Amino acid sequence: RFADEGFKCRLAVSLHAPDDELRDTLVPVNTRWNVREVLDAAWEYAEKSGRRISIEYALIRDINDQA
After folding, report:
1. What's an example Gene Ontology biological process for this entry (predicted)?
2. Each residue of 2-33: pLDDT tens digit?
3. Is 61 buried (19+), middle (13-18) or exposed (0-12) by CB count in 10 A?
4. What is the mean pLDDT of residues 44-60?
5. pTM to 2 decimals?
6. Cα gap 42→39, rounded to integer Å
7. Residue 31 is part of which domain span?
8. Contacts of 29-38 spanning 24+ positions with Cβ under 8 A
9. Residue 7 has what pLDDT?
10. What angle (nearest 5°) sits at the alpha carbon of residue 24, between those of residues 21 and 26?
């Protein structure tokens, strides 16, 4: 829905984890919108608005800093 509102702003997405299991513990709202839904919505916003998005990822030692 955000993409259809016509806002003139850059969207920042707080990802912090590449998978839902870890993101559930770091970002509690992930239980409502999972990683795939958030990224799909962000790309849709970028396509519709022509604006860039920012993916935020805070590295936490021994938690989300390994592949």
Report:
1. rRNA base methylation
2. 777 777 788 999 889 888 999 999 988 878 88
3. exposed
4. 92
5. 0.75
6. 5
7. 2-56
8. 38/13
9. 74
10. 115
